[in-house]
Write a structure and sequence with these properties.
Elements lengths: L1 E5 L2 E5 L7 H8 L18 E4 L2 E4 L12 E3 L7 H12 L9 H14 L5 H7 L10 H16 L1
Parallel strand pairs: 1-5
Antiparallel strand pairs: 1-2, 3-4, 3-5
Helix pairs in contact: 2-3, 2-5, 3-5
Bound molecules: FE2/S2 (inorganic) cluster (2 copies).
The site of one FE2/S2 (inorganic) cluster has 12 residues, from loops.
């Protein structure tokens, strides 16, 4: 039995320690907002926060979480989250939506830590999140918008 703290709750999960965190989140805990894309740390669809830092849950064994706090798209909250959500809505960022949970998790981590990101810093922070609908221009604009909200 492995104990993990996720979205503020301590959960016991009966899985092999090598089980990817993504499968624990989706299949055991039935939180399906976090998506499976590549399974190889290449697309970012599975991005969650571990102690407020974005990680790829598809390539993180559940045993590696330890005492860290996992946050998924279902559990994020606070000023940066509200700013990102409002900017995403205002700029109508989403197309098919499949990548967007991961995009938002990376964006929230970025604007929490950097409230005046340059285009280059945004590109760097978001480089691990692929969007097959190519919403990159709107994502970058929305991150600037969210950062401005954080500065206000
Ligand atoms: S599913 Fe994890 S990075 Fe693609
Ligand atoms: S909105 Fe479709 S993959 Fe990004």
């Amino acid at each position: 039995m492995i104990k993990i703290t996720i979205n503020g709750a301590v959960r016991d999960v009966d899985v092999d320690p090598d089980t990817p965190l993504l499968w624990v989140i989706r299949d055991i805990l039935e939180m399906t907002g976090t998506k499976f894309g590549c399974g190889a740390a290449l697309c970012g669809a599975c991005t969650v926060h571990l102690d407020d830092q974005p990680i790829r849950s598809c390539s993180t064994p559940v045993s590696a979480v330890g005492d860290g706090k996992v946050t998924t798209i279902e559990g994020i909250s606070g000023k940066a989250t509200q700013a990102v959500q409002a900017a995403w809505t205002k700029l109508d960022v989403v197309q098919c939506g499949y990548c967007q949970s991961g995009q938002i998790m990376s964006a929230v981590a970025l604007v929490s830590q950097n409230q005046s990101p340059s285009d280059a810093e945004i590109n760097s922070a978001m480089s691990g999140n692929v969007c097959r609908c190519a919403t990159y221009v709107r994502i970058r604009a929305a991150i600037h918008e969210a950062a401005a909200t954080m500065r206000a």
